[in-house]
Design brief:
Elements (H helix, E strand, L loop, with lengths): L14 H21 L27 E8 L4 E10 L6 E10 L1 E2 L2 E2 L1 H14 L5 E6 L5 H12 L9 E4 L1
Parallel strand pairs: 1-6, 6-7
Antiparallel strand pairs: 1-2, 2-3, 4-5
Helix pairs in contact: 2-3
């Protein structure tokens, strides 16, 4: 019996092997894309509060904070909304503002109620709001605004209102 053949050996075709490797890479790519999430699972706000200010409480919804500033005859509703880019790679906060004008020389409660309802529709899970009255605002106006921000018992808006 001979160890070597006398005829020339034909080299093996490597195309089926390469096709198998490419198919395996496509399957792995599909598996990785289907099991990984393109967005962050949790965001922790580590911002420190300014002197004399309470630390911000984390909120996982879209509206991060609601702040109502009262003037003598007008009000401003400011709220931070979390926005995410299309690739869900970063989340930023956008400060939005709704101006509530006066009507007949006093604060327009209907317009303020509509502004608060607009903010509440964006994120119904947010329960906290801050009201900051100016130095010339009467106690009756502050109580009226707090009632508007809290809502009614059947349909509460922001039940945890704090004065600043």
């Amino acid at each position: 019996m001979r160890l070597f053949r006398e005829e020339a050996m034909v080299e093996a075709d490597i195309r089926p092997t390469l096709l198998g490797v490419v198919t395996l890479l496509f399957l792995l790519l599909f598996f990785l894309m289907s099991t990984s999430a393109g967005q962050r699972l949790a965001v922790v706000d580590l911002r420190l509060a300014a002197p004399g200010q309470a630390p911000p409480l984390p909120h996982s919804g879209l509206v991060k904070s609601v702040h109502v500033t009262l003037g003598e005859r007008a009000a401003t509703v400011e709220f931070e909304v979390a926005t995410t880019d299309i690739g869900a790679s970063s989340t930023t906060r956008e400060l939005r503002r709704i101006e509530v004008p006066e009507r007949d020389g006093i604060l327009d409660g209907v317009a303020l109620s509509a502004a608060i309802a607009t903010v509440h529709e964006i994120d119904r899970s947010q329960e906290q709001a801050e009201v900051e009255p100016g130095p010339d605002v009467s106690t009756a106006t502050v109580l009226q605004v707090v009632d508007i921000v809290r809502g009614v018992a059947d349909a509460p808006r922001f039940p945890k209102v704090s004065l600043r």
